[in-house]
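For the sake of clarity, the format in which proteins appear in this thesis is described at this point. The fold follows as a row of integers, each naming the local backbone shape at the matching residue. One such record is shown here in full, so that the layout can be seen directly:
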Amino acid sequence: MAQPSPAPIAQNVPMMFVASGKTQEALTQYLNDYLDFCLNAAESKFHSICYTSCVGREHYRYRFACVAYNMQDLISRLEERLGTPSRASNGAAARRVLFAFPGQGSQYQGMGRPLANEYSGFRDILSNAAKEAAGITGYPILPFLMENAMAGPRSVDESEIAQVCIFIFQYAAATWLEGLGVQVQAVMGHSLGEIAAAGTLPSYSRSTSLIFASDCEVVELRSRSQIRCRSR
């Protein structure tokens, strides 16, 4: 039985574009090749070009990543990058990347749904993290992140649930972007966001489930402690 064709991507959906090379010179040449190709490609090829850049090649040490909304936007990003080459010999980008992690209040029902529906890599990370967090908290987390509405009595705005959902979303987004080649040089976090920010530092590995579980347990303990303090 023939598989149904995937639904077309909306024109206003931002797309991640990534490229990498084994050396800085190789990356620059690769970006020049991409720029030449995009200048002669049809606008309709924009989404395919971005998608293929994310899944079609291995990610090497020297990397470039950007978000673009259409072909002309992508061309502008490439021209900007090639016009401002790296000042560092080790391949660090001329522009430093900072991740900012907000605290409680940034949550909403289905907050992970838009990205998860568009990017399978993010969806896999989010689902796995939510599953592990559910084992720690004792209640399902993924429905609060993915469903448009909850059928049960509980709400994502409950402090106990909100804090875990925010942390899971932040962890998933940071891990996904890192896997695409976005190299973060600095982080900042407000209140609850400090936990995810600490786990995103270059010197702090998120490669093991043990470290992730420890962070999640800290968030769970924090939320329960706040509830107890408010009830006094």
Notes: The beta strands are 15-21, 62-68, 98-101, 186-189. The domain at 99-230 is CATH 3.40.366.10 (Malonyl-Coenzyme A Acyl Carrier Protein; domain 2).
